[in-house]
Write a structure and sequence with these properties.
It is a single chain. This protein is an alpha+beta fold. The protein has 3 domains: about 55 residues, no CATH class; about 230 residues, Rossmann fold (3-Layer(aba) Sandwich); about 90 residues, Nucleic acid-binding proteins (OB fold (Dihydrolipoamide Acetyltransferase, E2P)), CATH 2.40.50. About 35% of the residues lie in helices and about 25% in strands. The chain contains 14 helices and 17 strands. A 6-stranded mixed beta sheet has the order 6-7-8-3-9-10, sandwiched between helices. Helix 3 crosses helix 4 and helix 7 packs across helix 8. The longest helix has 18 residues. The protein starts with a helix and ends with a helix. Bound molecules: adenosine-5'-triphosphate. Adenosine-5'-triphosphate binds next to helix 5.
């Protein structure tokens, strides 16, 4: 330090110089050299200084970057040359049939597996698996697994506060209360998880995952055990919270509401591959494949000629039609035989036969079985879908 000061003052008495009659330029040069020396010697300062002086705008950061990853447990790849990225605060839903690799993808992002190929980055830092990282999970990342992983012998309150520092006791307590409110478990704060139902345990795990305000949250079927009465409000509150705090979230789900209503984009997985990546509304309206459409509910593949005979489409060309897009009409060339009606709350789902093939549509009231009725569809829907269908 002394040699540094001597160098800085170019032979002047450093004490006099600093404490008394220093000119403006001397002070300026002293500070300049002082900061330069600090920057060289303390790496943390180097980092902080550059971030404060020249912060990178968040919209330029690609937060999560999954690059061409492949992974197998045994012979068959479970993740197969898969790539996608997520931006700051983006909510990405991952849908796909059971076994398509959604959970494995989340675990790979969390660093639980060593990839056979490809890389995963968070900002500019590579996420490495157990071969390089004994304790998986970085502090900026939280993963809510399907099996909750709660501490059985401590209270709900302590489970939620598990990762919060005891140094700021008041803040910690306020934060736990805020989260208990969000997951509506104030009355269970002192219970042990073993005395709670599966859905209540899942809510505790959700609150714990959010306690530290991670930069990225990985949610695997986060509402699967929670009753629909609570899920809607919880889902709204959770995603509002994530948006407010700009937390990036990847959510693996079977639930079409999770997949569509809150996500900025949706990834469709099939056999370890992402077969589609799109904004939810576009994805739903133009599913492109029967596989994608059927993730959102019952879907029909109907010969286009049956729906719009005058448009001159080839005889064997079919179009995907959701059940709510078909309606009964007085008279049309598209006639079906009614087989069964299922009450589904605000409508009936009706199973019919068209030329011996099953077909489903919705109607506000039951239709008598074994009658023949005419169906119709808005032509614009058909034309738009054909344009995008593979
Ligand atoms: N530990 C493991 N060892 C061997 N195979 C595994 C293991 N974990 C998962 N798999 C296999 O990897 C494939 C993908 O599983 P994964 O749990 O990622 O699917 P998923 O899409 O999340 O399914 P679900 O929706 O049912 O949770 C499945 O075929 C599964 O049997």
């Amino acid at each position: 330090m002394l040699s540094f000061l001597n160098k800085t003052q170019k032979g002047k008495n450093p004490v006099n110089h600093i404490s008394g009659a220093a000119g403006f330029s001397d002070c300026f040069f002293f500070l300049l050299h002082f900061f330069k020396a600090l920057k060289k010697t303390i790496p943390v300062f180097r980092f902080t200084q550059s971030h404060y002086l020249c912060p990178k705008p968040s919209y330029l950061l690609k937060m999560l970057d999954v690059k061409n990853i492949s992974f197998r447990f045994t012979e068959k790849p479970v993740l197969d040359t898969l790539s996608f990225s997520a931006e700051p605060g983006q909510i990405v839903s991952v849908i796909g049939e059971s076994g398509s690799g959604k959970s494995t993808l989340l675990k790979a992002i969390y660093g639980l597996y060593d990839m056979d190929q490809g890389e995963i980055y968070w900002k500019d830092k590579q996420i490495l698996g157990p071969a390089y990282n004994l304790v998986p999970g970085e502090s900026y990342m939280k993963y809510l697994a399907q099996d909750f992983d709660l501490m059985p012998y401590v209270s709900v309150r302590d489970n939620i506060g598990k990762f919060l520092s005891n140094f700021y006791k008041k803040e910690k307590s306020e934060r736990i209360d805020e989260l208990l409110d969000m997951v509506e478990l104030q009355d269970y704060a002192d219970e042990k998880p073993g005395n709670l139902s599966g859905g209540q345990q899942q809510r505790v795990a959700l609150a714990r995952a959010m306690a530290q305000k991670p930069e990225i949250l990985l949610l695997d079927e986060p509402f699967s055990h929670i009753d629909s009465f609570r899920t809607n409000k919880l889902r709204r509150d959770l995603f509002a919270f994530l948006r407010k705090k700009q937390i990036t979230c990847i959510i693996a789900t079977h639930d079409s509401v999770d997949a569509l209503s809150h996500a900025d984009k949706t990834l469709v997985m099939k056999a370890g591959k992402i077969i589609r990546e799109d904004q939810p509304e576009r994805l739903y309206n133009n599913p492109e494949s029967r596989y994608t459409a059927s993730l959102f509910g019952e879907v029909n593949e109907i010969p286009i000629r049956a729906l719009v005979p005058e448009a001159g489409y080839p005889e064997n060309q079919r179009v995907l039609v959701y059940t709510h897009e078909l309606h009964l009409t007085e008279k049309s060339g598209f006639r079906v035989r009614i087989k069964e009606c299922y009450f589904e709350g605000n409508h009936y789902l009706i199973r019919a036969l068209y030329r011996g093939e099953p077909l489903f549509f919705e109607h506000h009231s039951p239709v008598p079985e074994e009658t023949t009725v005419s169906l119709a569809i808005d032509e614009k829907v058909v034309k738009e879908r054909i344009k995008n269908q593979k």
